Amino acid sequence: xxxxxxxxxxxxxxxxxxxxxxxxxxxxxxxxxxxxxxxxxxxxxxxxxxxxxxxxxxxxxxxxxxxxxxxxxxxxxxxxxxxxxxxxxxxxxxxxxxxxxxxxxxxxxxxxxxxxxxxxxxxxxxxx
Amino acid sequence: xxxxxxxxxxxxxxxxxxxxxxxxxxxxxxxxxxxxxxxxxxxxxxxxxxxxxxxxxxxxxxxxxxxxxxxxxxxxxxxxxxxxxxxxxxxxxxxxxxxxxxxxxxxxxxxxxxxxxxxxxxxxxxxx
DNA sequence: TAAGTTAATTACCTTTAGGTAAGGACATTG
DNA sequence: CAATGTCCTTACCTAAAGGTAATTAACTTA
Lengths: 128, 128
Known about the structure:
2 copies of one chain form a homodimer.
Chain A: H1 11-19, H2 24-33, E1 36-37, H3 38-44, H4 50-62, E2 66-71, E3 77-82, H5 84-87, H6 90-113, H7 118-127
Antiparallel strand pairs in A: 1-3, 2-3
The first copy, chain A, binds a DNA duplex (30 and 30 nucleotides) through residues 3, 21-23, 37-39, 47-55, 74-78.
């Protein structure tokens, strides 16, 4: 039994398939901003490997979240875009990103209130 | 550099620390429903190991998401509950679970429309 | 005092996720 | 026809996540 099938019936584990991967949210978020080609996604997500990018695109495709479209033009292009189902994930992703952003801001605010200079904290972080 | 520190500054990766673990959403969701003891969480989350449960509780504690409280009563009790910061995650988690639930329903609807009897599909799934 | 309960911790292991690097298929351009 | 660009696939490896099981410490109950 593969991990993808492990949690048939649990909403949490079901949703997790689409949101917990390192690059999944970033991929879907960018496809919401605009339908994109393979190469564009690779550029906009610095650090992602081609293996994982195709892997996730295939998974989203077979799950009905993303639609793959081969454009007959020159040079050859393959465009990926969200399906209607995929678009239902956008508000969820939006709330995740919004929370991440706010929580980061709060952390920064807390640090700048402390007596330790920010520069020192940043240095310490960089050393790790 | 640990994976927890890898993405300082990126809202997506920051939020992912709290939501992508196998049991994280389930733990927080239950703590929203009610403050709980270690043993209660273990019971309500069948399959979670004690190791992972303490691990996540420690992480949430040091992140300011969950508050640990030792109750001076007999028998000894340790209660975990969401902090104010932790409560800000609840709408996010709610939208994730809601989506998971709806998407599961859609999948079921699709399967029952197909010509293959559900029983056969279920058998095939069980075989994996 | 022995046994049980609660809340852990730890060492060890397996599984999964993700990264690296090589290469292939197909088309276009020079 | 060689070189280049796009969109992959594959084999192999490392690192991270998670599970198992033994153990502990503090306390309680019989």
